[in-house]
């Protein structure tokens, strides 16, 4: 279930706020400039290609491109049997920023975004149907868990894609990881 957990960075053992209410999640994220929406998903075969997925969501993708100036869209997918899953997980597990917005629409599965604002960290467990847009410059990290299983549409302003600029802070290592928050969310 989509869940927002808000932590005080100085007391990261327990979330001070937890909600599964989509409207409340949207409102709380909006106060920090984060776009959160839930789109209806389409029935697609389990082995749907990138082209089939982008075609199924062509209206939504076109709307976002027009509204936000995105130039390209692609699909990223990962499954638990991927032999490089641990390397992929580690790649974005430390706090970083990007010079352009990071936009993800979850077509399948789930993943956990951590967003760092001042002394607070917002942990958003995104699932199928969820769209999240993290503005450029936002300190964040992403945890796909030990057995990643997701398919996301990604949108880019720069056709070359984005590059992570790591902050060097260790805050990501002090908060509960995916395993703890996925279990808490049921």
Polypeptide structure, described:
With about 190 residues, the chain is an alpha+beta fold. About 25% of the residues lie in helices and about 35% in strands. The chain contains six helices and eleven strands. It has helices at about 20-30, 50-55, 60-70, 85-90, 170-175, 180-185, and strands at about 5-10, 15-20, 35-40, 70-80, 95, 100-115, 120-125, 130-135, 140-145, 150-155, 165. Strands 1, 2, 3, 4, 6, 7, 8, 9 and 10 form a nine-stranded antiparallel β-sheet that branches. A two-stranded antiparallel ribbon has the order 5-11. The radius of gyration is 16 Å and the shape is globular.
List keywords for this structure.
alpha+beta, single chain, 9-stranded antiparallel β-sheet
From the N-terminal CA to the C-terminal CA, the straight-line distance is 7 Å
Query: DSSP strand (E) fraction?
Result: 25-35%
User: Number of DSSP helices?
Assistant: 6
Helix content: 10-25%
Profile the largest sheet: 9 strands, antiparallel
Structural class: alpha+beta
Query: Which stretches are low in confidence, meaning pLDDT under 50 for 5 or more residues running?
Result: none
Rough outline = globular
Element order: H for helix, E for strand: EEHEHHEHEEEEEEEHH
Mean pLDDT: 93
Q: How many β-strands, per DSSP?
A: 11
Query: Could you tell me the radius of gyration in angstroms?
Result: 16 Å
């Amino acid at each position: 279930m989509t869940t927002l957990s808000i932590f005080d960075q100085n007391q990261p053992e327990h979330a001070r706020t937890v909600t599964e209410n989509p409207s409340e999640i949207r409102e709380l994220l909006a106060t920090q400039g984060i776009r959160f929406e839930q789109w209806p998903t389409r029935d697609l075969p389990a082995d749907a290609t990138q082209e089939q997925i982008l075609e199924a969501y062509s209206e939504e993708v076109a709307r976002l491109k027009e509204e936000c100036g995105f130039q390209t869209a692609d699909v990223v997918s990962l499954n638990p049997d991927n032999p490089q899953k641990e390397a992929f997980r580690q790649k974005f597990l430390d706090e970083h920023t990007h010079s352009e917005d990071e936009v993800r629409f979850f077509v399948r599965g789930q993943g956990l975004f951590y967003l760092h604002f001042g002394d607070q960290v917002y942990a958003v467990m995104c699932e199928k149907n969820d769209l999240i847009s993290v503005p450029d410059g936002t300190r964040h990290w992403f945890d796909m868990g030990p057995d990643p299983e997701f398919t996301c549409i990604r949108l880019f302003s720069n056709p070359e894609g984005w590059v992570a600029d790591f902050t060097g802070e260790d805050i990501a290592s002090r908060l509960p990881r995916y395993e703890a928050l996925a279990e808490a969310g049921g």
